[in-house]
Amino acid sequence: MLEKTINLEKLKFSELLLNGVNLIVISANEKGEITYVSPATEKIIGYKTDSLLGDNWWKHTYFSGEESELLKQKAIDIISGVRPIDYAPYDRKLKCKDGSLKWIEWRDSLGENNTYVSVGVDVTDWKKTQQKKIQSDVILKNVSSMILVSDKNGNVLFASPSVKKMLGYEIEDVLGEKWWDVTYKDEYEAIRVKNAILKYVFFNEKGAIDFSKQKIKTKTGDYKWIEWQISKGVNNTYISIGTDITNRILTDIELKKAKESAEESLKVKNQFLANMSHEIRTPLNAVIGFADLLLETKLTSEQKEYLESMQNSGEILLSLINNILDLSKLESDKLEVEEIPFDLYKLLYDVVKLMKLKANEKHISLDLIIEPNTPKKIIGDPTKLEQILLNLIGNAVKFTDEGSVTVSVKQLSSTEKFSEVHFEIKDTGIGILSNKIHSVFKAFTQAKNNTSRIYGGTGLGLTIVKKLVDLFGGEIKVESKFGEGSTFKLNLPLKKCDSKIKAKNEEQSNLVYEPLGLNILLVEDNKTNQLLAKRRLERWKCTVDIANNGIEGVKKTQQKLYDLILMDIQMPVMDGYEATKIIKNDISERVSKIPVIAMTAYSSIADIKRAKNAGMDDYIFKPFKPVELYSLLKKYSKNKSVYSPSKKNKENHSSPKNQVKTDKKNHQYVDLSFLRKETLNESPVLILLIKSFISDFEDFLSEIDKGFKRKNWKQVYAATHKIKPSIDMFGISELEPVVHLLEHKSKNEEQIEESEIERHIISCKELFVYVKIELLTEIKLLSNE
Ligand code: ADP
């Protein structure tokens, strides 16, 4: 840069010196004509010096005529003294010969002989960097994200002004190592994050810590969620760009909470529906059952007609309840697909046979065409497939008054394990309006407003079908022409089955009721159901004893050897699971071999698993059709005199103590579902309850130990009686029979068998070891929730 004291006069006359210096020097006379241009000018703006003399300087080197006029006038004014000279530097851009631009910094002066002299320095490069700097300063000032530049040790070299806006710190407070001291919760956390970043930037290693989202401490001590984008910079530096995502995170948390609460209310809704349908189905079962029984007696034709329509209405009501229950289960994704071998042809024949009755009544034909390439044996869920087909064929028959319904089945493609089977249900019925065709799969939708009045139905059938098809991983489509008919097309991937495996529905064909002559114990608390089942069983020449609850059931099995036990699950005093466990484990070898069949209204896989775990041999869903009960009884009557337990049963027949010893690793001893519901899943309350149960149980163990040592059976009995409800509450089903027996055995002082009591105490202790481990794990999990 030029010094202010530069001696312009000297320069003007020292050509030699000017040649060597990169300066533009011009001088002008009182008319404003250029009289001198320094040689270096050519190097800087490309014009030959001579070509710029006179007025040419003003014509060529300025971008606008106005500007050159102004500057020329300024020179004239200075020389004439109209205008005082200003020594301060000023910038003017010059047009080069090639049309490009150069920034020149000018300084004016007045020579001795009244000559105007101006000296210019080329500042183009400096100006460019300066402009860039101004630009980046503006950007850095205005970006809302924080920008940090740090060195290879993580020390912050540069922090953008937005750091103050976002976190409240002065820039100098976060430079160097200070960043890590002030913005992290503790030193340990800061080092972990810093190392993870350095590893990522300089060694390209992704560690276990996700540094892209961090909780950063602000000057006020509050925290903000910052999302970081980190990239490598020049000279061993890295650049971190941080955006404040606190609001987003808070919204996410809110959304998560809202989702959880929606899921919770869905759960409550489904539980309510399950309970309601259970409550409704039980009496309905009795209504339909008694109508069934009455229909088998002598009736006038009028009575028969009334009774049939009563039975019919009952069936409709039942199917509606079942539909609602199915839908709620499907909506809560609780329904699982079973995997059992079945005969697809037989299933299709059965479904069509059932629907033929309706079709015959309406004088329409119903045909089934199975193409030979269709696989016969399948592994899958026959009940759900049946439900899909019954719905579709049922609709086709329902909405067709003339003509035919045709069910065609064929295999589309096949792999080693799977077969893609195509089902087509085509009718010549009323058809569906084109604008309604897309909504028929939606819940409570019927194609026309008067459908329900004319044809009945609720608009739930196809919704369930669609959800079941999704569950199978298949797809369903409908094509229809209003007034001409509809075709429902269904593709399902079905698992192939080894032909040697016996299919579930193979043996049930051609069922004719024959007397069974079984000695049956019916354990059921509902009086109407007792009567209904008793009458039904007596028709098949069975003798039936009734027990009103689990305890009565257990007592009755001690007095008489039955061929079979029908066991309700939900009963007061002692439920079916508990009673079965005692029957299967604690009475006698012979009693343990009696098949126990669970009667359950809840059709969930969990219930079935629980029934099987308790030692039950089979199950039937309430309300059951006579044919279902009959085939089940027939199955077990085959083994009437020679019934020998299966391998699995043998395992279950051992004492509870032995039973505990099997499969300890993955076994779950505790079922907290009841408590979760009761506490509305509030972790702190649950933790409190679990802790107090552990301490109560430890007290109980020490009480019974003391009682046993002192032969104080009252003490043993009192402690056992006290702990019993908690065991139930915590769903520790394995402990239930043991504690029950301990209570039972210690109650009767006259008939105490010390060794037996000791065995039960040991069982309690053994089981508690596992229960406690599980409960402590649960506390840990709950604390992290
Ligand atoms: P709904 O209980 O009313 O039969 P669905 O969900 O099974 O309920 O069917 C929904 C609606 O789709 C029916 O009300 C009817 O309007 C229409 N629909 C279903 N199948 C057929 C069919 N094969 N032909 C004509 N319309 C049908």
Descriptive report:
- This protein is an alpha+beta fold.
- A hairpin with a 3-residue loop joins strand 14 and strand 15.
- The chain is elongated, with a radius of gyration of 46 Å.
- The site of adenosine-5'-diphosphate has 23 residues, from helix 14 and helix 16.
Topology at a glance:
Blueprint: H1 8-13, H2 15-20, E1 23-28, E2 34-37, H3 40-45, H4 56-60, H5 65-80, E3 90-95, E4 101-110, E5 116-122, H6 124-142, E6 146-150, E7 156-159, H7 162-167, H8 171-174, H9 178-183, H10 187-203, E8 213-217, E9 223-232, E10 238-244, H11 246-295, H12 301-331, E11 340-343, H13 344-361, E12 365-370, E13 377-380, H14 382-398, E14 404-414, E15 418-427, H15 451-455, H16 461-472, E16 475-481, E17 485-496, E18 519-523, H17 527-539, E19 543-547, H18 550-559, E20 564-568, H19 576-585, H20 589-592, E21 596-600, H21 605-613, E22 618-621, H22 626-637, H23 647-653, H24 656-661, H25 673-678, H26 683-709, H27 713-729, H28 735-747, H29 754-784
Helix pairs in contact: 11-12, 11-17, 12-16, 13-14, 14-16, 18-19, 26-27, 26-29, 27-28, 28-29
The structure holds adenosine-5'-diphosphate.
Which descriptor suits the 3D outline?
elongated
Mean pLDDT: 82
C-alpha Rg, in Å? 46 Å
Query: What proportion of the residues form beta strands (DSSP E)?
Result: 15-25%
- Sheet having the most strands: 7 strands, mixed
The percent range for helix content is: 40-55%
Bound molecule kinds, no repeats: adenosine-5'-diphosphate
What structural class should be given to the helix and strand makeup?
alpha+beta
